[in-house]
Write a structure and sequence with these properties.
globular; alpha/beta; three-stranded parallel β-sheet; four-stranded parallel β-sheet; 10 helices; 11% strand
């Protein structure tokens, strides 16, 4: 891969963090793949702000999207003060509040579902399954982004929605990986394959801890890494790479 030759500085990336595992994977991807493009040990400047995850969970449990948006905007203002020039949030679920965030934000954002939907369009996908928290898969975050690009979004069954949500919050978010949970997520992907999907969205930033192209019955759209790569593209857009 050709390394960047320009001396222009990359943009400063602000990460609005929610859960630790997903934010950490996004951060690591941005830095590691930055070095692959910029040269050894180089990556764009990155700042992260993460309130207590419980603050987000309490808002989600009571359906308070205004509260979710307020937390995201508080992080946005803190990151602007730290020098960030644009923002990403490696948490799919809280994007349900994004319409409340976009206009009030002091900085521009990349929207995780729009990044994933663009990749689905680029690959020529027509029908994709959706995994994620119980809140995410019940929302219109992905169906809306995909429908705008002519792609059908298949939600899991209600039983799958609840069981995925439990395993994500009780195991993956705390960073615990159980073989039974790996197998459960594989079975959900097999269900999507059987109903005619041509790929599956890993719509929780922790799901890549247990699923990938290597062990899933369908090609995967890894929202965590796709967002990190889109942020890297944005950060380096003004450089000669």
């Amino acid at each position: 891969m050709t390394l960047c030759a320009s001396l222009a500085a990359p943009l400063h990336v602000g990460i609005v963090g929610c859960s630790a595992e997903g934010a950490a994977l996004c951060y690591r991807t941005l830095c590691a793949e930055g070095a692959a493009r910029l040269g050894e040990h180089r990556h764009p400047p990155v700042s992260m702000h993460t309130p207590s995850l419980q603050d987000y969970v309490q808002c989600l449990e009571r359906g308070d999207l205004d509260g979710v948006a307020a937390l995201m905007l508080d992080s946005a203002r803190r990151l602007q003060a730290a020098g960030a020039e644009f923002l990403i949030c490696p948490d799919n679920t809280v994007h349900a509040a994004f319409d409340r965030v976009r206009e009030a934000s002091p900085l521009p954002w990349l929207h995780i579902a729009e990044v994933v939907a663009e990749e689905a369009l680029r690959r020529g996908l027509r029908r994709v399954g959706l995994t994620g928290t119980a809140w995410l898969v019940a929302s219109d975050v992905y169906p809306a982004a995909l429908a705008a690009r002519g792609i059908d979004c298949v939600r899991p069954t209600e039983a799958q929605r609840l069981e995925m949500g439990r395993r994500i919050m009780d195991e993956l978010v705390p960073g615990r990986i159980e073989f039974a949970t790996v197998r459960y997520f594989q079975s959900v992907v097999e269900h999507f394959r059987d109903v005619g999907c041509d790929a599956v969205i890993l719509g929780c930033t922790e799901i890549p801890l247990v699923l990938s192209d290597a062990n899933a019955a369908l090609p995967t759209l890894d929202s965590t890494r796709l967002l990190a790569r889109a942020a890297l593209d944005r950060a380096l857009a003004g450089m000669s790479c």
